[in-house]
Design a protein that fits this description.
- The complex is a heterodimer.
- Chain A is mainly α.
- Chain A has one domain.
- Chain A has 7 helices and no strands.
- Chain A is elongated, with a radius of gyration of 19 Å.
- Chain A starts with 6 loop residues before the first helix and ends with a helix.
- Chain B has 10 helices and 5 strands; from the N terminus they run αβαβαβαααααββαα.
- By secondary structure, chain B is α+β, with helices and mostly antiparallel strands.
- Chain B has 2 domains: 56 residues; 211 residues, Glutaredoxin, CATH 3.40.30.
- Chain B is 58% helix and 8% strand.
- Classes of the chains: A mainly alpha, B alpha+beta.
- At the A-B interface, α2, α3 and α6 of A face α1 and α8 of B.
Chain lengths: 171, 284
Amino acid sequence: MAVDVTWRSRVDIAWPWLALVARLVLGGVWLAAGAAKIGDPEASVRAVRAYQLVPDPLERAVGYSLPLLEICLGVLLVIGLAQRLVAIASAVLLAVFIVGIASAWARGLQIECGCFGGGGASGGDPTAGYRWDILRDVGLLVLAGLLAWRPTSRFSVDGLLYPDPRTREVP
Amino acid sequence: MSNRKKRDDGRTARAAQMRRERERADARRTQLTVGAIVAAIVVIIVAAGAAIFASERGGGGATPHDLTNDFGIVYSAQSIGSDQAVKGVKPVKVVFYEDFQCPTCRAWEQQVGSYVKQHVNLGVISVEYRPIAILDQASTTNYSSRAANAAFCVFNSQGAAAFHSFHDILYANQPAEGSAGLDDSTLNQMAEQAGADNVSSCIDNQDFSGTVTDATDAASQNNIVETPTIFVDGKELQGPQPNTAPGLPELADAVLAAGAGQAPPSPSPNNQQGAGGSSASQGR
C-alpha cells in the first residue's frame, strides 16, 4: 500500500491542510490590517493621500472603504467561503498595494505604508520599510495565488456546500 | 435487436442528460447560497463599520482663539510682547509642523531651541507652530492627540509665551515610542509649570480634540507626510543630505537668505541688534 503513495498523491493529501494554513494566514493578516485601520479612518485617509496616487475626491472614499474591504476578505478567508473568488480579490488588492509602495519608493516619497494603520507619516529613512513591506506583500500574494489555483481546503464552508470527494476521502 | 439497443441507448442518454441537468441545478443552487451568504456577511461588516465610523469623534467643535487659519500658533516678538524687538525689521516667517510624540521633532528642538527663542525675542523671526497628531499609533493612549490638545488648551488660556514654555516642557519629557505616553494629570502638571493653572478640564475632556483632527487633516491635505516639516519664508527646509532632517545650520542659513531680501539693516543678527536698537529709539 505504502508503495502506491507517490509524491503527487502526498501533495494531494496534504494540500487541503496547506490551503487551510494559507487561508488562515492571509485571512488573519487582512483582519489585523482592517482592524488596525477601522478605529482611525482619518489616518487611513491620510495614508491614502500620502501615496499621492488617488485623485483628491476619492481619497476619503478609498480611505474609509479599505478597512471594510480588508475585514470582509479576512472573514471570508477564515471561514472559507467563496475561496477562489476571495483569493483572486486578495491577490488583486495585494498587487495594488505592491505597486503603490514600489511607486512611492521609486518617487522618493518618505512615507510609511500605513498597512496596519497609521497615517502614512514617516520618521527617518523609509527604504528599509519599503523593502520589508513589499517582501511581505509578495509572500502574501503567493499564498493568495496558491489558494486561487487550488482552493480546496479543510474546515471550510465551501467544503460543506460543495461536497468534494477528494476532501471527504482524506482521513 | 438493433431496435432494442437503440431504445436502450436513448434511455441511457436521457438519464445522463437528466443527471446533468440535476447537477447543473444543484450547482446553481449552491452558487446562489454562496452568493447570499457572502452578501449577508458583507452587509453586516459594512453596517458595523458605518456604525463605528459614525461613533468616532470628528473635527470641528471649539477652536482656541487667535489660532491661524492653518491651525497654527504664532510665536513672535509681538505675540509674546518682547521688549527686545528690533524696530523696522520684518520677521522671517518660519512654519513648523510638529508632533509631540516625534523624536526627530525633539532633536530639532534641542538643536534650534535657543536660537529660535533669541531670534523671536529680537523680532528677526516669527515661528508658526502647527501641532498635528500623526503618531497616535506610537503610544497606547493616543498621546500625540492628547499632547496637541493640551498645547491648544495652554495657548487658548495663556497665549503664545505659555504655549512655548509648555512646548519645551513637552519635548523635555517626551515619552518613548511604543509606551503609554504621559497621562492627563502629568500633562496638567506640566501645563501648570508653563503658567496655565486652569486647563485641567480642557485636558481631561480634550476640549480641542476637534481642532487637533482638523489640523492634522489640513496638514495632510497640504501633503505634509512627516514631522518635523519646516518652512522658512514659504520654502521647505531640507536636510543636509537626502533622507535626513534639517538642523540649526540649515535653519540659520535659510533665515539669513530670506532676511537679506527684506531687512533694510545688515542681515547678520548681531548687527541687527545694534542697528535696530538705535532705530528703535529714533522711532520713538
